[in-house]
Amino acid sequence: MTGMSSFLRAWRDAEHRWQSCPLVLRHASQGLVLVMLLALGTALVHVTGGTQYAYPYLMLIPVLLAGAWYTWYGALLVALAAGLLMAAIPLSVATGEPQATLNWVIRLGLYLIIGGFAGGLFERLRQSYLSVELASRTDPRAGLPNDIALEADLARWLKRPQRQDKRGIGVVLVRIEDIGEIMEALGADASDELMVAISQRLTRLGPNLQGSYRVSGAELVLLFWPVEFKELEHLAHRMVELGEDNLVALGVPLRVQLVLGSSLQETGDATPGSLIREARIAMLAASEKHRAHCHFQPSFARRSLQNIRLIARVRRGLAQGEFELHYQPKLLLASGRVSGFEGLIRWRDERGTLIAPGMFMPKVENTTLIEPVTRFVMGEACDFARRHGGRVSINFSVRNLMDDELLEELNRLVEEAGIHPSQLEVEVTESALVHDLFAAKQALERIRSYGIQVSIDDFGTGFSSFEYLRHLPITGLKIDRAFVEGLEKDERARKLMACLIEVGHAFDLEVTAEGVETQGQHLILQELGCDQAQGFLYSKALPVDELLAWHHEREQLLRQDDSLATRQLYRNVPPC
Ligand code: C2E
Ligand code: CA
Ligand code: CA
After folding, report:
1. Residue 424: which residues within 8 A CB-CB, separation 6 or more?
2. 344 CA to middle of ligand 1, Å?
3. Which terminus of the chain has fewer Cβ atoms in its 10 Å neighbourhood, N or C?
4. pLDDT band for position 409 (50/70/90)?
5. Which domains, ranges and CATH numbers included, belong to the chain?
6. Ligand 2 center to residue 436 CA distance, Å?
7. What is the position in ligand 1's atom list of the atom closest to the CA of 541?
8. pTM of the entire structure?
9. Which residues are found with C-beta within 5 Å of the ion, ligand 2?
């Protein structure tokens, strides 16, 4: 099987090499082959004694070959030549007996009929091959060339000898960020029309643009030749400008956001695959950095390789049970009593090293892997609440909010654990909410409909309007630790904190300050009327058994002497 496929590949390569030869050379060598075959056939018929035997039929070989190369007109021409050549040879060379006229005329007619028919057939085959090839190189929805055409054209451009001025081929991958919403609102036809409109508009980029290709539902690739780095940067800049103008799809004016990644042929080793891959990596880097365009740098590739490795390790770690949920207590500031716990994920890798979520969660949150990771967290948290009572908070990322099945599972887990839904709280960061406020609101309403609490995490860092608080069905605010840090030294920080607490209370929300590390911060927050506090002053996040021991000790001290307990228990715990 592999022998067969390598033979076919070698055949295709040879054919490709042949097709890329100069046209004059190809016609000259094909003509020569035909003349040689005609001469060989004539000589053979002569040597074998004349036209009385069956050898004249060998002349059909050049006739059919001419049909394959030059269709019916080539075949007819060679058939005529073959018929006339055969007419010139006697019936018997030895006796010199000539052929009857009818004999060679019939033979000539036969050559012409067979040649014309075969030539026509070859022409039909060629036409259907060309239309199949064209279809395989075209995106059926938008009618634009597709990724197969891109690779083939790019391979052709790369074969050209490198220019003296070092300008080479530039590849720009364009992703339309909002295509999902456009498809949802207007259907797939609108997104196809939009692709065509963008591609047409980009033809204004000038003579260096050699082609534009649709390589996926939301992506176009543009080829430029000849270009150097500065020109490519300028072209990318123009593309962003052109993309930002209004476009019309299905009669609806739309404004789209484009993200671009570019790569440039810098050495002779570049291949179509490597240039497209580099442009894609650069586009992903631009998307990650919230920039409109990035040009490929080798460090991008290293980073994305590291990310892929990390994601693979997390996936394996999850399957091998290497993840744990640690719990950090939250305290009621008025009474000093523990009011709940935040579940924070930890990864104990194969060497037993405890890895903090900052090392892997930002990457995991950008992939579908966040779903099984959050399922694990939900399961652990419900189990903890069932065994030990109390309130448990878990963190949700933006993808989790958009995952209806995950939300349903959360409800199911709460029911199965037999805990009261208000024992569970979901923390969502402000930035995750503002990503798509409408969808986030729907998700939060759903969580609230299960009776589960919802609080806004890292509050105050999202630079968003407080207006949205009025519309979201939330129950709590967690003020980011950046606001807690300066409380003791800075009067203005204290005023800001007072203001944030007031905002929370104005909306009837439970206000928690996070990152409390000193006794001074604790007292100020108490004074300002903050409801809850969480931080290293009380405890870092601990594994369940250590947390239970900590809780037990604390409860005992509180029972002995309130003020003593307060003094003894607020001790600094180094971060894990
Ligand atoms: P976060 O939700 O804001 O969690 C609070 C982080 O602050 C935790 O870091 C906690 O250990 C740390 N912290 C608590 N008290 C103090 C303090 O007094 N001082 C200082 N400097 N830090 C304090 P951690 O556990 O490393 O988590 C970091 C972030 O990772 C979390 O921030 C959260 O965004 C994310 N994360 C953790 N677990 C999960 C999870 O299960 N799911 C998701 N989606 N994200 C998680
Ligand atoms: Ca949190
Ligand atoms: Ca936080």
Report:
1. 381, 382, 385, 391, 392, 393, 394, 410, 414, 452, 453
2. 6
3. N
4. very high
5. 2-136 (no CATH), 147-296 (3.30.70.270), 322-542 (3.20.20.450)
6. 20
7. 11
8. 0.65
9. 395, 427, 457
